[in-house]
Design a protein that fits this description.
Blueprint (H helix, E strand, L loop, with lengths): L1 E10 L8 E15 L7 H13 L6 E7 L9 H17 L5 H12 L2 H9 L2 E4 L3 E4 L6 E5 L7 H6 L7 H20 L2 H7 L6 H8 L2 H10 L3 E4 L6 E5 L14 E4 L20 E2 L9 H16 L2 H21 L6 H24 L3 H15 L8 H15 L7 H12 L5 H12 L1
Antiparallel strand pairs: 1-2, 1-9, 2-3, 2-4, 3-10, 4-5, 6-8, 7-8
Helix pairs in contact: 1-2, 2-3, 2-4, 3-4, 3-12, 6-7, 8-15, 10-11, 11-12, 11-13, 12-13, 14-15, 14-16, 15-16
Length: 434
């Protein structure tokens, strides 16, 4: 038996949009047992893909999860599963892989380095062309509140403008520098200035509720508040001015019981034991796309179509993960499409990464999976229809400047999410309001 603990992560941290991530003292625990492959969840799926990527197949295993990290709340829940899958593969195969290669693989799988890199490395991580840990003063703590509603990452991404004013970009650079100084020195004034953002939080506020009021209350208590990832979780840095919340920033740990004898390369977790629930994969959901995928899986298995089988298993695993997140038996059509589009985006980015790395054979595998995913997606509206929707949304919201872009996109997503090409809509909105 192998036990792997992986920390939750906070991303963006205010002014560090897509560049900063922080591991915190909340973790998911994954118990890995040797045997036949069980449900093809995200951990097993990642372990298999690691075997393909690095040329050493992973022996079969089953997974039990103790979850404390809320799903779809901007705390990197899926990143914990990705990291657990990679560590399980590494421990079970004994393969030695360069750390940078591991990070590149995780970034291609998760598409959010500012979540998955700190989940793998621990601590505060600067995510750019390279991953580098940065110092955090021991007086700095994090307070976190996770509301009982989700924010769709695709919807949050779509709310962002394709361009921002030069003054906003310069302001964020200054805030980012102050944020790093504040975290290094435990300087509450630098932290307060460093979490002020102009690139993403203002455009997403309509998705999160009364953020301004919550932030004002936090500042009155001496905290430095920000949105974690795309939300809905709100977090705040605190020092001596507010009551701290313990945050042991450690990398993920793994340890073995007697079932596997080889030692592990990470120390065991030393924080509090998990109090989360055990969440086995859901098996009984009845959804139109899930039913189709299940039937297509049977056909692919009989035909021994390995490429199609891999893509179908990835889709099914993503749906099961979503069902487990809210404990329901069904997903509505918008949720189904959002999951499929996320998977398609991951595959496209993986293709680009593998092509850039000269691994054309792996890029071909990704292309085959992308073709399977796209087979379940509806056609998106073209330029003429999208322009008509944009004009109607602008009229309905009273938008007149680029600052209103988030409102327009929010209205479009509400009415036309299933058929909307967000990138095309962003371009048209910019033409209309720019």
């Amino acid at each position: 038996m192998l036990v792997i603990d992986v920390p939750a992560t906070l991303a963006n941290l205010g002014a560090g949009y897509d560049t900063l991530g922080l591991a915190v003292g909340l973790h998911n625990r994954f118990t890995i047992r040797a045997g036949v492959w069980g449900e093809d969840d995200l951990v097993a799926h990642t372990a298999r893909r690691a075997g393909e990527r690095f040329g050493t197949p992973c022996p079969p295993f089953t997974v039990e999860q103790e979850e404390r990290v809320p799903r779809s709340r901007g705390l990197g829940s899926s990143a914990t599963a990705r990291v657990a899958g990679l560590l399980a593969w590494r421990e079970l195969t004994g393969a030695a892989v360069d750390e940078q290669a591991e990070l590149a693989f995780l970034a291609a799988e998760e598409c959010h380095p500012d979540n998955v890199w700190p989940a793998r490395l621990g601590g505060l991580v600067v995510c750019g062309a390279l991953a580098r840990r940065a110092p955090v003063h021991p007086s700095v703590r994090v307070a976190v509140v996770s509301p009982a509603f989700e924010v769709s990452t695709p919807e949050a991404r779509a709310a962002l403008p394709s361009a921002v004013p030069h003054a906003d970009a310069v302001a964020n650079l200054g805030a980012l520098a102050l944020l790093l100084v504040g975290l290094r020195d435990g300087d509450p004034d630098a932290l307060a200035a460093g979490v002020v953002d102009r690139l993403h939080q203002p455009y997403r506020a309509h998705l999160l509720g009364p953020v301004d009021a919550a932030f004002a209350n936090a500042r009155e208590l001496g905290a430095a508040p920000f949105v974690s990832g795309s939300g809905s979780t709100l977090a705040a840095f605190v020092t001596g001015r507010a009551s701290p919340s313990p945050t042991p920033w450690r990398p993920p740990s793994s340890r073995r019981a007697s079932a596997w004898s080889r030692g592990c390369s990470h120390p065991p977790w030393t924080g509090r034991a998990s109090a989360g629930r055990n969440s086995p994969p859901h098996r009984g959901g009845k959804m139109s796309i899930l039913e189709r995928v299940s039937e297509d899986l049977k056909v692919a298995m009989k035909a021994r179509d390995k490429d199609r089988l891999q893509g179908l298993r990835g889709i099914r695993a993503a749906f099961i993960e979503a069902l487990k997140a809210d404990g329901s038996e069904t997903l509505d059509p918008e949720e189904e499409l959002a999951i499929l589009r996320r998977l398609a985006k991951q595959r496209r980015e993986s293709i680009d990464a593998y092509v850039a790395g000269g691994r054309e054979e792996l890029a071909d595998t990704e292309r085959a999976e992308l073709a399977v995913i796209e087979g379940y997606l509806p056609s998106l509206a073209g330029p003429e229809q999208t322009a008509a929707w944009v004009d109607a949304a602008i009229a309905a919201t009273g938008a007149s400047t680029m600052k209103d872009m988030g409102k327009v996109m929010g209205a479009l997503m509400k009415d036309h999410k299933a058929e909307l090409d967000a990138k095309l809509a962003n371009t048209i909105i910019k033409e209309r309001l720019g």
